[in-house]
Model the fold of this input.
Amino acid sequence: MSSTFFGISTLSYIAAMAIYISYLAFKKKGIGIFATSVTVFGFINQTIALLLRWSESYRLGIGRAPLTNLYESLIFFVWTLILIYLIIEFKYKTHVFGAFVTPIAGLALAFIELSGMSKNIEPLVPALQSNWLIAHVMISFLGYAAFGVSFATGLMYLILRSDNRRQGIYIFWTICVSIFIIILAAFGIDYIHYKAVSSGQEMIIKEHLFESTFKNPSLAIDTVSWLVSAGLIFILWRYGLALKRLLHSFSLSVEILDEITYKTIAIGFPLLTLGVITGAVWANTAWGVYWSWDPKETWSLITWFIYAVYLHGRFVRGWRGKKVAVLSVLGFVAVIFTYLGVNLLLSGLHSYGSMK
Done:
């Protein structure tokens, strides 16, 4: 039953993403209201799905919170992201942010399908059988969701403050957005290719990462992949100022964007700090050591330092605007690598968080 509600919420968020982008294009208030309504509908269905999955685990005799594997944590991350976004939308009474936040939710849910990760409810491995489980995961992902919103508003700030194509921040954000699109497209091509030639629920993305494009045995395909990617970066660089003009048409204030970026990071940072602390205590109960420099622990610390620099620069050095907006974008890139990149490319004690 929970899978049905998860499916409805996934379709709702992807539809909301398209509607929010349409709102940017057509600037009709009714479209914005409709986009918000679809997002709320998806959020309600996802809430029901999470509660049902929790109930189903008890009916199966497992009895655990739906937060213990990569699939469940991705679902919970999306839920927290949408929750924080809706609060901000209702507070600031603008639908524009949705065009930048809902794609994160939609693409996270799409990644579930692209990766072939297991969606089964399974018993906890010994490392997860701890009272610290819910506290650590919920606190960490509430922080991640806040950082997701700060990423969107920070990116919007950089777009609005871009004056010409040779400006450093303009080149920075166009490259960041291009790489994001390129990686997602490469994931999709891997999925389509290897899903067509294989059977079963193998970990397609993890086992065949970029083998259809950038790591293809064929030199021709490999070369074309790099050329297409370079072309996409050039196109976005060449026409990116059109996005600035579009955002300007909504009379968005860069001061408000800076304020939201700061407030969400100010919320996310203590949550991340508590997440690291509870994770250390949990590690001690599971493995007998508070810190082992496991890849995920190391990247969590790197992420913590990036946001610490953001807050230090703002409070002590008086940084505002472009510098801290860049840090908000880089910080969320570190979050994504901590959360997904480590599972895809590295290994360690956090193997229970893999896609299997």
Observations:
- The radius of gyration is 20 Å.
